[in-house]
Amino acid sequence: MSSDAPQLIQQAVRGVVEEVPALKPLKLVVGIDLHGRGDVQQFRLQMPEIEVTKDIGADAKVRIEMRRDFFNLMVEHGAKVADWEQAFVEGRAKATGVTQYLQLISRVVEKHQERARLKRAHH
Known about the structure:
This protein is of the alpha+beta class and about 120 residues long. It is about 45% helix and about 25% strand. It is built from 4 helices and 5 strands. It has a 5-stranded mixed beta sheet. A hairpin with a 4-residue loop joins strand 1 (about 30-35) and strand 2 (about 40-45). The termini are far apart.
């Protein structure tokens, strides 16, 4: 089960970056903790390369935590940015770390969603 996690993480990140291209150049190391039954799998995501390794990610500026089964479901169902955002709001996923990075990502995503809403309103 754990061997597919890096590919799933890459798939999830690529989906988000495709949807919000402004995040693509972001230089950031993210620690990802996936909680399973009685254990925690830890991964290190290096951006902008979207390189995922099984590592504690001690140099991570942002850390994301969520249940492994929930993460798998989100990726399998092709979760969009709005789905991930809802997961954070509901507490199913948690992001901690350097406040400036968290705020920057949040602002970039909000601006993208505003532009998407405006485009839909004009049509």
